[in-house]
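Support request, priority: normal
Reporter: lab tech (M.K.)
Component: structure prediction queue

Hi team, I submitted a job for Serine/threonine-protein phosphatase 4 regulatory subunit 3 from Neogobius melanostomus yesterday, and the status page still shows it as pending. I've pasted the exact input below so you can check whether something in the sequence is tripping the parser. The sequence length should be 785 residues. Please let me know if I need to resubmit or if it's stuck on your end.
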Amino acid sequence: MTDTRRRVKVYTLNEDRQWDDRGTGHVSSGYVERLRGTSLLVRAESDGSLLLESKINPNTAYQKQQDTLIVWSEAENYDLALSFQEKAGCDEIWEKICQVQGKDPSVEITQDVVDESEEERFDDMSSPGLELPPCELSRLEDLAELVASSLPSPLRREKLALAVENDNYIRKILELFRVCEDLENREGLHHLYEIIKGIFLLNRTALFEVMFSEECIMDVIGCLEFDPALPQPRRHREFLTKTARFKEVIPISDPELRQKIHQTYRVQYIQDMVLPTPSVFEENMLSTLHSFIFFNKVEIVGMLQDDEKFLTDLFAQLTDEATEDDKRHELVNFLKEFCAFSQTLQPQNRDAFFKTLSNMGILPALEVILGMDDVQVRGAATDIFSYLVEYNPSMVREFVMQESQQNDDDILLINLIIEHMICDTDPELGGAVQLMGLLRTLVDPENMLATANKTEKTEFLSFFYKHCMHVLSAPLLANTTEDKPSKVSTVGSLDGLSCAPSSDDFQTSQLLALILELLTFCVEHHTYHIKNYIINKDILRRVLVLTASQHAFLALCALRFMRRIIGLKDEFYNRYIMRNFLFEPVIKAFLNNGSRYNLINSAIIEMFEYVRVEDIKSLTAHIVENYWKALEDVSYVQTFKGLKLRYEQQRERQDNPKLDSMRSILRNHRFRRDARTLEDEEEMWFNTDEDDLEDGEAVVPPSDKMKPEQDLMEPISKFMERKKGRPHSGFLLGMSRSGSFAPESESFDFENCPIPSPDPIPVIMKIKKKLYYSTCFIHGFGYRE
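Reply from support: The job had stalled in the queue. We restarted it manually and it finished. Here are the results:
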């Protein structure tokens, strides 16, 4: 059986001062030759990979916290922590660290003497433990100076922390605080502020446990109210005791859990509101405070998760129709905060947490809550739903597919989400944007599972297009019944009620833009599902109506949708576009835009340029044959003239298919050098019917796809004229250094022929069943017989 004593979690502190879980494994210590020293090694329990390899440096300060944590810094701003499953394992590793550093295992922090001169080191090492002045009103100034002078030195900080801890000094200081406050001794209160702030910067868990105890924490906060830099003290205690109220939406029977919740709230308040913003130097001294809050939250979530009665009562009241609205509001807010706390859990614990919520029926509960009229409750439910979708979208997909077998489409959870997106009353559609992001995650094939028994992608997309897509596209279809966006339409809820009348207004246009963004995503990532839906429902024609919108961003969304479809180069889509003449609204928008140089102009030109560059023949012919008269006068770009040239070349190849096929052969083999390939080509020519080519006829492939036909044929004509009056002479042709064919009197020196150009023009000739290859270059030539 695996030894659980050495089972640990590895954490690193990120730039936001939050602990990131790096994995679970088993820790050991041993000598590592590469690091030349005793090191801590953590190997993952899943696959045995190395999670951590850290040399125990004699000068590194290690801290032992809460009996099961060891924290240290590898380098500046890079903190590490090991969280042990059992205290015994933590003690074993701590003893090993202390043995390497020569420390007593009873200490909770080892010494770090970095940045101290040798003289200071000697003085500090040779001096006895730090002696604190008596805790009296008259010595407060001396104590404040002692604390301030000890902070720059790690060794002095350690000695000061030990002295404060051993002498139970904090409680004595807090007694003086109460005396000074009763006497209104402002100078003494200012000294106490500096002292308590300095104790925070000692960054020691044992001191925090005393300061944050139930009997001390309010006095600690009181000391921090009297900042000498402020003319009047703050009122933090008044806020915590009179304004802030602890609400138990479900009674908590465990007193330890209740106390932990109180403590965490107050410590978080101290960190966020009471302590001054730390400097760069001081920020690294508060890492233990961050850790204290982090692990407190982990404990709270774990204790609540283990309380089955608590969670059962929570979900029972959430779904009970008799629950009052105010009570349900509090329950939903509690559940939202509960899910937010879960983000601090380790991955497998977070997985178990959401599995527990799923077993308790959180998704059916959310379905009930989302059907309520309270906007705030629905907003909180949306936040909870986002936690579930972001962490485990497959769980949500599985639920909605199962409920579709029992419920009507109108009350499906995913359709409720779509309805709330459509009916968002926020002028900026903040909620709709959030919901659209969640829908996008749910329909993203990249996070769908594929197993031997089933394929989640196929099952869920079939479900979505059958039960949900008509709900999503309803506002789009309702607003595009005419040739331009409808002046009055119903962007409706699922029960047929109107959420908002539309007159091409800004809010409705924003909503349609969101829907188009999601549909564009579907075009890019889904295959036949979205294709069938677009073609069968004539979606693209309805979308292109929006190019006439007064809002440019909506017109651009419509153009982007069509551009994604064209980018697929799918002939099904192309035939659909041509059959319905769907370039007409695009060209109309282009002409209506006039000479304005804006995004609409650029987007439309880029669409046609893509058709030209990618040589989409069917669309090129369709555009030129139907819209050339409207586009022929556009001369500030060459896109449309290029399309016309493409079209003409296509027609020429259709009229002369023999020449086109020979061009293809030459173009595909233009730079071929493999002798075996050339022999295959030769054999193909030997097998060709002799009548297909006249004796001595040469075929020259075009060097540029855009070169006019008459230019291509000119060198062939010159060659044939010259060859008629010239006998065959061992080589077939020559080319002058200027690039033209050489006259008969010109000869060439084969041995001193210049280096060929890297861009040859191959000429293949067939004479009396004999194939010759002659390669002509700009500055010379070579040939092969």
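The CA atoms of residues 315 and 360 lie 7 Å apart. The first helix runs from residue 87 to 101. Let us know if anything else looks off. Ticket resolved.
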